[in-house]
Specification:
Elements (H helix, E strand, L loop, with lengths): L1 H4 L2 E5 L12 H13 L4 E4 L11 H15 L5 E4 L5 H10 L7 E5 L8 H14 L4 E5 L1 H4 L5 H10 L3 E6 L4 H10 L5 E4 L5 H7 L3 E4 L6 H12 L3 H10 L1 H8 L5 H9 L16 H13 L1
Parallel strand pairs: 1-2, 1-8, 2-3, 3-4, 4-5, 5-6, 6-7
Helix pairs in contact: 2-3, 4-5, 5-7, 7-8, 9-10, 10-11, 12-14, 13-14
Length: 293
């Protein structure tokens, strides 16, 4: 069942670029293998961390197919299809070849700031046309609109194929309300590395992680320990990552994790405009913390 596949640590894959800004498929293959060998439970392809707004439709399709080929059914896969034009998203969901994927991650519409009824109608249209289960993605810091607990629960109760929500609002009261009142087979997934541990103690089933790109073994261990109720050991790992997680996002995502992966020799430290690499000051701080870890 899907709700058991999406338990633990999912990783929102970065898109490695070469110096000429083309997609570095060799580096992407190494990154996928790194995830599979080190305990990542599932991969999220073409999410926010992948710099999807700067990828062409052809590149997104190529990356989708490439990840599926390399993963070769060894790990569940989630594909990001979201946007602020409902008609376009419904068309993509209905026409994209998702045969090797397990679920869709769909972010709340951004920029045009729909009402709660608008959000409900948006996801209703997607749910009625999707061949795969849907993970709602609430990240008001990026989209400019918060999907309330009431709206998430309304969708969860009305549509069996809406299977989970990735919650990145940082609002513990809101997230707790969803966990308390959700259907049994609906999952709440943390969208913030830094608060994954406390959210699991409330009832979240894991995280879709950024830091997991670089530390899949360590961070997935923390998630598993927390899910098993071994809070003392999980808390120790949680605290060991506190400073690094703060540095990941101080100058935006995925600049921080790309700096980290570059320091580890896994990718080039290259982003596409309007995103730029970390400043030297932040880069050196990340280098220091990595050496201490």
């Amino acid at each position: 069942m899907l709700n058991t596949k999406l338990v633990g640590m999912g990783v929102a894959l970065v898109t490695p670029f070469k110096e000429d800004e083309s997609v570095d498929y060799d580096a992407l293959k190494k990154l996928i293998e790194h995830q599979i060998k080190n305990g990542t439970d599932y991969l999220v392809v073409c999410g926010t961390t992948a710099e999807t707004p700067t990828l062409t439709e052809v590149e997104k399709e190529d990356i989708k197919n490439f990840v599926a080929e390399v993963a070769a059914n060894r790990i569940p896969l989630v594909y990001g299809i979201g946007g602020n034009n409902t008609r376009e998203i419904v068309h993509k969901v209905a026409t994209t070849d998702l045969s090797r994927y397990d679920a869709i991650l769909s972010v709340t519409p951004y920029y045009n700031k729909p009402s709660q009824e608008g959000l409900y109608q948006h996801y209703t249209a997607i749910a009625k046309n999707s061949p795969l289960p849907i993970i709602l993605y609430n990240v008001p810091g990026r989209t400019g609109v918060n999907m309330t607990a009431e709206t998430s629960l309304r969708l969860a109760h009305e549509f069996p194929n809406i299977c989970a929500v990735k919650e990145a609002s940082g609002n513990f009261s809101q997230i707790d309300q969803i966990i308390k009142n959700k259907p049994t087979d609906f999952s709440v997934i943390s969208g913030d590395d830094g608060i994954t541990f406390p959210l699991i103690t409330l009832g979240a089933v894991g995280v879709i992680s950024v830091i997991g790109n670089a530390f899949p073994k360590e961070f997935s261990k923390m998630v598993r320990l927390a899910l098993q109720g071994d809070y003392d050991k999980a808390r120790q790992i949680h605290y060991s990552f506190t400073e690094l997680i703060e540095l990941l996002f101080v100058e935006g995502n995925p600049a921080g994790v790309k700096s980290m992966l570059a320091l580890m020799g896994m990718i080039e430290n290259k982003l596409r405009l309007p995103l730029v690499p970390n400043t030297i000051k932040t880069y050196e701080k990340i280098r220091r913390v990595l050496s201490e870890l």
